[in-house]
Amino acid sequence: MNLLLTCNWQNVIDAIPCFCWGVLILTLVYLWFKNYYLKLKQNQHESKMKEDALKREIAWSFFNSLKASIDEQLNKSIKEENMLKIEKAKNEMLEKRLQVYKEFIELLNMDIKPKEK
Q1: Containing structural domain, residue 87
Q2: Does 29 map to a domain?
Q3: Phi, psi at residue 51, to the nearest 5°?
């Protein structure tokens, strides 16, 4: 206890206002960090996530439009192929009918002449 009484406390007393200002400044920095900086960081994170989501949506919409155009082309080519198959089948049927008519006419052994007026 004697040691505490014999020390010069004037330096400590003179440092008290600086210590109070330091505590006040640290408190203000803590409050600023808690209230503003963290919210700012959170808003930046949210905006970044929204931008990423927008980019993904744009990519998906491009993919869907590309898929739709490919599907349309595929459907068109399938329809064209089907039309070609139908035309070939019609041609084959007509050729068979023509062949049957030719054979029928040959069996009748008739000459076909145009009508005279």
Answers
A1: 12-108
A2: yes
A3: -65, -45
